[in-house]
Amino acid sequence: MKKTLSIILLVALAMTLLAGCGGSVNANEIKIGINYELSGDVATYGQSSVEGIELAIEQINAAGGIGGKKLVAVKCDNKSDPAEATTLTTKLTTQDKVVAVLGPATSGSFKATIPVSLQNKVPVASGSATADDVTVDASGVKEYAFRICFSDSYQGTAMANYALNNLSKTKAIVIMDSSSDYGKGLAKNFIETFEAGGGSIVAQEAYVAKDTDFNAILTSIKSDDFDVIFIPGYYNEAGLIIKQARAQGINVPILGADGFDSPTLVELAGADALNNVYFSNHYSSLDQDPLVQEFIKDFKAKYNKEPDAFNALGYDLAKFVADGIARAEKLDGVSVKNALAATTDFAGVTGSFSVDENHNPVKQAVVIGLENGVQASSEKVAQ
User: Per-residue pLDDT for 209 more than 90?
Assistant: First the structure.
């Protein structure tokens, strides 16, 4: 009786340990983590990214998976909170035993997960974390961190050059989100490039995330002599700034970056206010590349709506990571990391790229122009 009881207890203990590590390993599956902002302040970024990721995974599995193995996503909501994103990365890498983690979308949350990925030797990759220090900082390259979007330096520089060369503007006001690395990085590089190109910064104003009334800032600059405004920040506040600026009769071109790309921008600003507005992005539906048009067709068939840039970035991110897994020597984090770092000539809907020595993509940006809240023009800008 005692022997039988001991065996039962041992079996129960083994099952408990397996459950704590995400369950038994299925030899016919490859697990990847999805750690995105599905609720909270920047939920539209995460939701859009995951739509693209899930379309890509569906297509990969329909085509036979990776080496005959099904790609399985373990999806988590980090609630737009860096601390929660870190906790989830720990769970995904230690319990769920994923070979890579996709996300988060924003730079702050993504950077918070990198120490955990290094500790557990599992790569993390983002489609939209644009801060300059995401993959490399003063201490060197972050071995297990990758991204497929361009950096804030590039976006800030691109938009400064666009203002100077394409719009012939020379007197700028910067209204910056001072509460985010994203806003500060964009502002710094825009200002440096704009001034180096012969332009002048007439004024610099700041706000913090979740501000809603910008009329005091706009009233204070209204009498200044300027011909363009740059707003490095996210759609939540940018939409309201644009709406209130137009209401005050400020009709100069307004520039931004990929943080403008959300349907909520139109909801907040109103379509009438979104004229003479330009922002850098990773993708435009106006691109006639067959790869882009095929993606648009497939996305509309699945979701019954037009894809945005975050949908496209999520799609490319999943394909990029799957490509790395397929080329990896073994199905473990170290091997997948090595394969991702060796990526060359990856063909994506957000552009073809190779991964450089800092785990960044070498690719082009797109500057999108809005008319009545709708994309009316797109121009590619070389890196």
Answer: yes
